[in-house]
C-alpha cells in the first residue's frame, strides 16, 4: 500500500511545520505521516539529518513525498539533484507545494523523462540561486536590503517573478515558441528570449529580489 509523506526542514528563519502542512492540505494533500527536522541547518545533507535518514528508509516505490520546495532536500545544487535522482531511482514521486511541480520516478516514456529531468535541474538551480541570494543579502547587510532603493546593490528589478520563471522554463522544455510563451505568461517576447539565453542569471535575479523584499518586510529588531 502506497503512502503520502510530508517532509519539512524547519530552522529559526523558516516557516513552521504547521504552516507548511496547512498549505499542502489546502491543495488537497492527505498525509499518512509527517517527518520533520526541526532546527536543522540547510547546509546539512538530507542523509545526515536525524529525520532525513528516517525518511530515506521510510519511502518505497509508488510512495509520494511532498515538500515545500526542492531546497528542503539538500544543501546545494548538486546535493539537491543527487537526492531527487536517488528518490526517482527508487520510484518515489516528489511533489512541491510551491509551484506544484512533480518529479515522477516511475515514468519511462523518453519525452516525459527528459522534461522531468530538465525541470529537476532547473528547480535545483533555483534553490541554489536562493541560497546564494541569501548569502549575498547577509554579506551586504539587512539594513541595505531594507532600503527604499535596493536597485543600488541588486540592479534593475526583473519584470517576472519566480512562478512566471518556472512556467517559462516548463514551456521551453515542451518546445513552445517564444511568442506563445509570452502570450501564456503575460511577459514580453524579449524577456522570454533573455531567460532562455541565461536561465541561471534569471533565477539569480529573481531569488535576490525576493530575498531582499522579504527582508524589507521583516520587522526591524529593536536595539536593547
Automatic annotation (TrEMBL):
<dbReference type="InterPro" id="IPR036162">
    <property type="entry name" value="Resolvase-like_N_sf"/>
</dbReference>
<keyword id="KW-0229">DNA integration</keyword>
<feature type="active site" description="O-(5'-phospho-DNA)-serine intermediate">
    <location>
        <position position="11"/>
    </location>
</feature>
<dbReference type="InterPro" id="IPR050639">
    <property type="entry name" value="SSR_resolvase"/>
</dbReference>
<keyword id="KW-0238">DNA-binding</keyword>
<dbReference type="Pfam" id="PF02796">
    <property type="entry name" value="HTH_7"/>
</dbReference>
<dbReference type="InterPro" id="IPR006120">
    <property type="entry name" value="Resolvase_HTH_dom"/>
</dbReference>
<comment type="similarity">
    <text>Belongs to the site-specific recombinase resolvase family.</text>
</comment>
<dbReference type="Pfam" id="PF00239">
    <property type="entry name" value="Resolvase"/>
</dbReference>
<keyword id="KW-0233">DNA recombination</keyword>
<dbReference type="InterPro" id="IPR006119">
    <property type="entry name" value="Resolv_N"/>
</dbReference>
<feature type="domain" description="Resolvase/invertase-type recombinase catalytic">
    <location>
        <begin position="3"/>
        <end position="149"/>
    </location>
</feature>
<dbReference type="InterPro" id="IPR006118">
    <property type="entry name" value="Recombinase_CS"/>
</dbReference>
<protein>
    <submittedName>
        <fullName>Recombinase</fullName>
    </submittedName>
</protein>
Amino acid at each position: 500500500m502506497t503512502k503520502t509523506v510530508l517532509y519539512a526542514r524547519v530552522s529559526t528563519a523558516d516557516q513552521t511545520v504547521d504552516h507548511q502542512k496547512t498549505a499542502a492540505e489546502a491543495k488537497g494533500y492527505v498525509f499518512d505521516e509527517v517527518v520533520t527536522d526541526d532546527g536543522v541547518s540547510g547546509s546539512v545533507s538530507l542523509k545526515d539529518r536525524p529525520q532525513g535518514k528516517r525518511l530515506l528508509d521510510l519511502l518505497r516505490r509508488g510512495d509520494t513525498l511532498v515538500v515545500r520546495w526542492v531546497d528542503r532536500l539538500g544543501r546545494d545544487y548538486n546535493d539537491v539533484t543527487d537526492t531527487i535522482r536517488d528518490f526517482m531511482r527508487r520510484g518515489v514521486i516528489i511533489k512541491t507545494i510551491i509551484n506544484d511541480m512533480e518529479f515522477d520516478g516511475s515514468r519511462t516514456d523518453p519525452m516525459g523523462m527528459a522534461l522531468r529531468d530538465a525541470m529537476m535541474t532547473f528547480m535545483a538551480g533555483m534553490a541554489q540561486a536562493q541560497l546564494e541570494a541569501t548569502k549575498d543579502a547577509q554579506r551586504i547587510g539587512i539594513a541595505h536590503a531594507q532600503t527604499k532603493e535596493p536597485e543600488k546593490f541588486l540592479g534593475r528589478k526583473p519584470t517576472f517573478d519566480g512562478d512566471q520563471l518556472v512556467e517559462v522554463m516548463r514551456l521551453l522544455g515542451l518546445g513552445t515558441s517564444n511568442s506563445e510563451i509570452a502570450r501564456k505568461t503575460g511577459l514580453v517576447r524579449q524577456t522570454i528570449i533573455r531567460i532562455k539565453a541565461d536561465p541561471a542569471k534569471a533565477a539569480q535575479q529573481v531569488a535576490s529580489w525576493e530575498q531582499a523584499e522579504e527582508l524589507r518586510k521583516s520587522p526591524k529588531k529593536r536595539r536593547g
